């Protein structure tokens, strides 16, 4: 029987995995990448270190995708973290597990992950064509028969895997091409929008830019109701806030803002102390430093950059000796420390987002194969689908798992 011909569009993690798996299953594979080299976005993931996956157990892992977790259950059942780690180990890539179960290459270099994948794809016999953007798919009788490149060249094939990524970091080649290809073939799209993106605040944060807060607890409120709460690290930027906790909360914040709802962040700056213990701490500090001005005493409780904001928002007098702080003033201070509120006014553009929310509606793809339910022989993998997870290696695992399944499924196409 003639080997099926598979065209993979996109040379990111999902595309490389799909291409290599299809070729390993006996298909003749061509990988079409529009950029001069594949894997540009992979090289900037994890701040250039490439957070490959996470060692969380499957139930916990799926929770990091929200509603998308249900769709990913099938791909993860076929190819999950242990299999991915074994895959890289067999290719000679040692890894390390860090805080929060995050997995990185031992070298700390994302380029080593890309080098390993490129070598594997080459040895599998994949023909990689760079500078080859795809303008449209060729469909006959609700079956894909090939693709047409921007230069008009036609590439015939039995199956196509769309693994073009989302629309964040367009300089790496992720410009939403897969959305257009899917829409042109009649697929429904969930509106693409930023996810894992810094948020903008009503308060001017320019004086705080560069300040990081570790071990804080942040509540996200939408229309005054708690949507989600996380513990960890956040940071201030010139336009608002960022950092791991903020990025993880940003998806729900963006959706709230897009719906015209009030979105707020409430930061507990002293989560290790409940209110009685925090009150006792304040009394001790004020007693021990009774003659010092309040602004000086607060330096023992807060980063220098936050002292002025605290005083302004609580209405406390900076020069007042600590011994003269009244009980009602101490209550205001205690409340502020436990409920530092930031009103969210917007979010940074899609080009600054780590991933894109939205994409091809998962109801349009079969999670057992990643094949389109509308067009035979057409498969989707990675961020082009409406699946997005938290930071911590979850999104790359989803890319590798869906790519693995799409590639192997496409290789089973008989034309």
Automatic annotation (TrEMBL):
<keyword id="KW-0285">Flavoprotein</keyword>
<protein>
    <submittedName>
        <fullName>Aminoacetone oxidase family FAD-binding enzyme</fullName>
    </submittedName>
</protein>
<dbReference type="InterPro" id="IPR055178">
    <property type="entry name" value="RsdA/BaiN/AoA(So)-like_dom"/>
</dbReference>
<feature type="domain" description="RsdA/BaiN/AoA(So)-like Rossmann fold-like">
    <location>
        <begin position="6"/>
        <end position="408"/>
    </location>
</feature>
<dbReference type="Pfam" id="PF22780">
    <property type="entry name" value="HI0933_like_1st"/>
</dbReference>
<dbReference type="InterPro" id="IPR036188">
    <property type="entry name" value="FAD/NAD-bd_sf"/>
</dbReference>
<feature type="domain" description="RsdA/BaiN/AoA(So)-like insert">
    <location>
        <begin position="193"/>
        <end position="355"/>
    </location>
</feature>
<dbReference type="InterPro" id="IPR057661">
    <property type="entry name" value="RsdA/BaiN/AoA(So)_Rossmann"/>
</dbReference>
<keyword id="KW-0274">FAD</keyword>
<dbReference type="InterPro" id="IPR023166">
    <property type="entry name" value="BaiN-like_dom_sf"/>
</dbReference>
<dbReference type="Pfam" id="PF03486">
    <property type="entry name" value="HI0933_like"/>
</dbReference>
<dbReference type="InterPro" id="IPR004792">
    <property type="entry name" value="BaiN-like"/>
</dbReference>
